[in-house]
Amino acid sequence: MAAVAAGLSLVETDLVVVLAGDMPFAADTAGTLATALRDDSTTDAVVGVDAGGRPNPLLAAYRTASVREALPDPPADAPARSLLALAHTTVAVDDADALDVDTPEALAAARHRLAT
Predict the structure, then answer these.
(1) Closest CA to 22 of 91, 85, 89, 109
(2) What b/e readout covers 53-73, taking b as 16+ CB neighbours within 10 angstroms?
């Protein structure tokens, strides 16, 4: 959450897309998430959901003001999952776009995608 807070301090737009740094293909989904949020004025966020049905708060588009209000003080020890408390909808995300490279197997999958 500290990284979200730090980045948010530089945001001057109404919407912000948050992508985890260890998700090398997530940028392919950023536009989809932002468009879905722009098209839905009733919610604070659109969150990507992987094939297992798991919502990822670090693969999401948010209304900037809503995230600012939801940030704890201090943000350092707060889990990013707390952002899921915001009113949100979900969008199914391709497995490759949701790939979180934090294991040797995930790294092998990322390399395979790059090779094909």
Answers:
(1) 109
(2) eebbbbbbbbbeebbeebbee
Beta bridge partners of 47: 60, 90
Which domains, and CATH codes, for the chain?
A: 2-115 (3.90.550.10)
Q: Where are the alpha helices (DSSP H) in 9-103?
A: 27-38, 64-70
Assign 73 a pLDDT band (cuts: 50, 70, 90): confident
Is the pLDDT confidence value at 84 over 90? Answer: yes
Question: For all residues of the chain together, what is the average pLDDT?
Answer: 92
pLDDT of the residue at 14: 96
Alpha-carbon distance of 47 to 18, in angstroms, equals 10
State the Cα torsion 61-65-66-67 to the nearest 10°.
70
Q: Which residues pair with 59 in a beta bridge?
A: 19
Sheet with 88-92, strands from edge to edge, namely: 15-19, 55-63, 45-49, 88-92
